[in-house]
Specification:
eight-stranded mixed sheet, three-stranded mixed sheet, Spore Coat Polysaccharide Biosynthesis Protein SpsA, Chain A, single chain, alpha/beta, 9 helices
Length: 283
């Protein structure tokens, strides 16, 4: 029998109706699961979808929005021991998505304070099954696949002792994991809890996100530095995926724009570092 582990689900939204409905349909919630929507001013039908789904709606002013602050507000409203942070743009790949987390919770050692599920943005993502435990310095190179607060489960009591940083513009999830590991806790990866990333943002938004994500990652871990040849290879792969139906146009544009933003940010950081080193050597 499936373990009876109710989950509080926190979803951040802003005019997310185009994808939020698909997320709700794919979640396959149980009656005792709790849905919390932290909305920063939607003007489309997002809130109507949330109310129809029986969600607890927590508003946040757009001017005060940060990822960390929105999550903290949502977690404050959570009533269950385990809280899932899920993006309104990440659609579970299987009807057993929540059950994958439920089963995993009963296999976790007491040291596990959070778990992540893979975020799949490309058709050929190869991810093993099972559970991987990250401890100590295991995260110095990252997870090795897309993961973080768009699809992450937290032990609520661990969050109570370590709330998300509300001031940083991105990387609040990675910061949380690293602080947890430094405290002797464990972060798990539940490989079966997969989601598709289907964000319909503009190319400019993906470009900005690429820069923010790389800046946050490089501050915390040994982030892989994108290269110009790597961008051309990715573009060629995306052009192959489109006619094969393995990726839609929105996904291809977003993936390439995000990678280009990461490349530009990596180049900018490298030039700034070189300039500082040069100034230091001249003194």
């Amino acid at each position: 029998m499936m373990p009876e582990t109710p989950i509080s689900i926190v979803v951040r939204t802003l005019n997310s109706a185009a994808t939020f409905g698909r997320v709700l349909q794919a979640l396959n919630r149980r009656p005792d699961d709790q849905l919390i929507v932290v909305d920063s001013g939607s003007t489309d039908t997002t809130l109507e979808l949330a109310r129809t789904a029986g969600a607890c709606i927590v508003p946040i002013e757009r001017s005060r929005f940060t990822y960390g602050r929105a999550l903290n507000l949502g977690f404050e409203a959570a009533r269950h021991r385990w809280v899932l942070s899920l993006s309104s743009h990440t659609v579970p790949t299987s009807s057993d998505f929540l059950n994958s987390y439920r089963q995993a919770v009963h296999r976790f050692p007491d040291t596990v304070s959070a778990a992540v599920g893979p975020i799949i943005g490309e058709f050929d993502a190869s991810i093993p099954e099972g559970i991987t435990l990250f401890e100590g310095n295991d995260l110095r190179m990252g997870f090795g696949f897309g993961a973080g607060n768009p699809n992450a489960l937290y032990r609520r009591i661990a969050w109570e002792f370590r709330r998300f940083d509300e001031e940083i513009g991105g990387g609040e999830d990675l910061q949380w994991y690293l602080d947890a590991l430094k405290s002797g806790e464990t972060v798990a990866a539940v490989h079966a809890a997969r989601v598709y990333y289907i964000n319909r943002q503009s190319i400019r938004a993906f470009y900005r996100k690429g820069r923010v994500d790389y800046r946050a990652a490089s501050r915390l871990i040994q982030a892989h530095r994108p290269t110009l040849p790597g961008l051309f290879i990715r573009a060629a792969k995306l052009m192959l995926y489109l006619p094969m139906g393995k990726m839609d146009w929105y996904g291809a544009k977003g993936s390439l724009a995000h990678c280009f933003g990461s490349y530009i940010e990596a180049r900018s950081l490298a030039l700034s570092r070189k300039s500082r080193e040069s100034s230091g050597s001249d003194q």
